[in-house]
Amino acid sequence: MHVFTIRNVEPNLVFVAVVWYAIRVEMWRAAAYGLAAGFALDLLTFGMTGGAWTIAMTSVAIFCSSISRGFFADSIPLVATITLVATLLVRLIFWVVMSFEGYPGGVAMIHFHEALFEALLNALVMMAVLLINRRIDSRYA
Predict the structure, then answer these.
(1) Is 6 helix (H, G, I), strand (E, B) or coil?
(2) Nearest alpha-carbon partner for 112 in 82, 88, 86
(3) Considering only CA atoms, which of 55, 129, 137, 64 is closest in space to residue 92?
(4) If you average pLDDT over residues 115-141, what whole number do you get?
């Protein structure tokens, strides 16, 4: 999604896929999917994050799966809200793990502003994914 970079922030399609899958399946499947996605992101950083993505994505997948039990997974406002909250949560967990590994905390406000903007972009991407999914489902129904 480097094409859609706005103010040094881009939507995270891996994260959107994890949230979209997690709100539709049981908690253990969501955790396994989040674990695999986080591990793949950690591999792409060549070990620079030290497992921070694995921990963050797994935790957020469990969170999304657990709170999505009480509503339909096709509700655009609810899924967008979950995506907003989950983006902030994944970034919080990621930066907490990175701070335990010695990453300096002096740029925390910059990362917070980027996380807020990324949450908005991820919610917009999630809404687009849901609308495209509805269009495809209605076409084949």
Answers:
(1) strand
(2) 88
(3) 55
(4) 86
| Residues written for the chain | 141
DSSP 3-state of 125: helix
Give pTM, 2 decimals: 0.85
Strand partners, 9: 6
Contact 73, 129 (CB under 8 A): no
Half-sphere exposure of 20 (CA within 13 A, CB side): 19
Identify whether the C-beta of residue 119 lies closer than 8 Å to the C-beta of residue 84: yes
CA 134, 40, 116 angle in degrees (round to 5)?
A: 60
Query: Which of 24-28, 29-33, 48-52, 54-58 is least confident?
Result: 48-52
Return d(Cα 81, Cα 128) in angstroms, integer. Answer: 14
Alpha-carbon span 66 to 23, nearest angstrom: 8
Residue 131 CA to residue 74 CA, distance in Å, equals: 9
Distance CA 58, CA 66 (A): 12
Q: How far apart are the first and last CA of the chain?
A: 31
Give yes or no for a contact between 6 and 121, defined as CB atoms under 8 angstroms apart: yes
